[in-house]
Amino acid sequence: MFLRELVHPLNELRGVGPSLLHTLSDAGITTIASLLTRYPRDWEDRSRTAPLKDWNKGQVCTVAKVIAHDWFWFGGKKTLKAYIEDQSARATLVCFNRPFLQNQLAMGKEIRVWGRFYYKFGEIQSTAFEIEKSGASSAKILPVYPLTKNLNQNLLRRLIQQAVDQFCPNMEDELPQKIISQEKLLTKSEAIKAIHFPPSMETLEKAKTTLIYEELFYLEIMVGRRSLERKKVISNIISRSHEGTEKDAESTNNYQNFVPSFASKQCLCERNSENKFRNFSPLQQRLIERLPFKLTAGQEKAINEINSEIAGYFPLARLLQGDVGSGKTLVAFLAALRAVDLGGQAAIMAPTELLARQHADNAARLLEPLGVRPAYLTGNLKYSGRAQLLKNLAAGEIDIVLGTHALFSKDVLYKNLSLVVIDEQHRFGVTQRQAIIAKGQSSLQRKNIPDLIMMSATPIPRTLALTVFGDLDITIISDMPPGRKPIKTHLSKESNAGKVYDFVRKELEAGRQAYFVYPLIGEKDSGDSADDEEGLKNAVSMANKLAKEIFPQHSTALVHSKIDEEEKRKTMDAFRRGDIRILAATSVVEVGVDVPNASCMVIHHAERFGLSALHQLRGRVGRGGDQSYCFLIYSDQEDQPGINPEELNEEKRSREGKRLMVMLENSDGFVIAEKDLLFRGPGQIAGIEQSGYLKLGIADPVRDADALIRAREAAFSILEEDPGLQRNEHRCIADVLEKAPPFSEVGL
Ligand code: ADP
Ligand code: MG
User: Fold this and answer.
1) 289, 294, 326: residue to mutate for ligand 1 pocket, most atoms within 8 A of CB
2) What are the residues whose beta carbon lies below 5 Å from ligand 2 (ion)?
3) N or C: which end of the chain has fewer CB within 10 A?
4) Nearest Cα to Cα of residue 636 among 531, 519, 532, 497
């Protein structure tokens, strides 16, 4: 039997009556399987000695002698205080509500004692301790379980011990034997036994490794199978050639490349692209010729990879990651041109109207001269000409449409949508992404799923990319357009903001532009006070202050999400032209906005923003050839009032200081995202929390990144060789999936 098949009710265990059954079920433990997978949150190593004198270093675990008794009254009860002594120190055990300990703690007895001790009333004392006759049982490693109301350690230990004894002997392995021996893992039965009652710390580690690997292996098997299924939807057998020539249609039958490229042991970022550039489509060629610059190597590689897949029989699903400013927009345009050359339509979706508008403007500027017909579709009902636009779209008279999620509202019909690009994909929810894919299937002409390119500038840490987006091909643009200077970043406390303003003033006078970002929009009626009740600066009132008091000689404007679309557009246009020099904003400028002449980014209350958001904001500057600057201003009220973490050494920095220092010490978005993860935990990484996906039991894709990569390779190579899992040695995988699947749904 597989572990998850043990759905027996718990009253099969001795001593479990109706009331205990109830308590257990409240704690989410309803079957033997759920009892056995209630893994300990910690282990107490009683095989090691920790003498009384080391009470402040952690749990004490020692053999001591009872040397005196004392009785006192507590809560109307006579309470024992026993004085004990080991070779290192003296201490007291206070036996609240445990009069029965009197015998075990008789004068002169030697006992083994475990527990936490504190220094109280001039003595080292403990109230929560456990004792045992010394020499009674050999010292061992005990599990410590997460508890809920009415459950205690001893009870759980006893029940789990029973379940282990009764059910482990017949527990079947869920991993193929070959993997167990290759990875030097324990059998499932050994692993479950040892995770609860490890004979040694070493075996405990092995048990953890085994269960973690197994979980990640099945995660990747599910991911790989999802990929297989999606690719099979389009064609039952036919594969496409990976050569990327226009002759894709003549490809031969094979199962290769059913699974993402990572499986073929090519590194994530360095997929072979030998057929360099033979195949720009005509429109791509023309755009590239008109550009005032050369594509970066990363852009070339990305387009090359995209070209080799679009127009194949399988829908492309690719995650295009590139740090802020790496030039993803152009890659999206080139991909769209290829789709148009092949007679399809492309939709490019951005998360904010500001960004969608910017894309639309760029598309008009770059693509219209090529004879391509781009259009901007806004959700704004006031937008005139919407009806006509929808008509044109359905008639195929628009080639590339740019907009927000309005691109996929009910009334929007496409004639032949063949490519969807989602910019800043982490900003969209799962349901939105699914609606988009469904839309492609309902295109008037095409009964296919459109190709999908998801772009992300908030880099998903590589390890998470492998899990959540594990069935996508991944392209990483790892270089930047040439000539960019690294952005100089500084921390400043609020009370020093004046110096920052002086610096920015010089930049403005030199012809540059600046952003000022605030965490709040601000109420219209909050008068002219720049601070709201919590003492946070807001964009509305600060815009006023910037314009009137701080930089009266330069033009200032305001953007935030509540400003009317038309006004926002005018403001952004003016800022782009340089007519407006200072933009006060909320984090709406976080994504995508591209104004190369802006050289200063000032972020107030930087402590309020996640590191990835700060990285995004900082990425708004440094887009031209000039030296750019980012100032992170933090409140003086933080736990280290007024102390600039830059002036402190590592240990003395507050947590907040440490977090902000990451921004000073790193410019690579991937590194920053990984660190963000450490500070915030995976649940909060943009986009991931919406996926409802990362419900892992024991593995942690970040901590266990190495195991994840090995598990993924193993899972994918099995699927590549034996997609149906029909071979004998893979039987157990098929069985597990059928009888006891570890994940109910692996949703993107
Ligand atoms: P992101 O990847 O953050 O979306 P963008 O697409 O907004 O980046 O590009 C950032 C800036 O770099 C834009 O001004 C764009 O015109 C410019 N750019 C893109 N590709 C190149 C290139 N190959 N050489 C020089 N500049 C480029
Ligand atoms: Mg962008």
Assistant:
1) 326
2) 592
3) N
4) 497
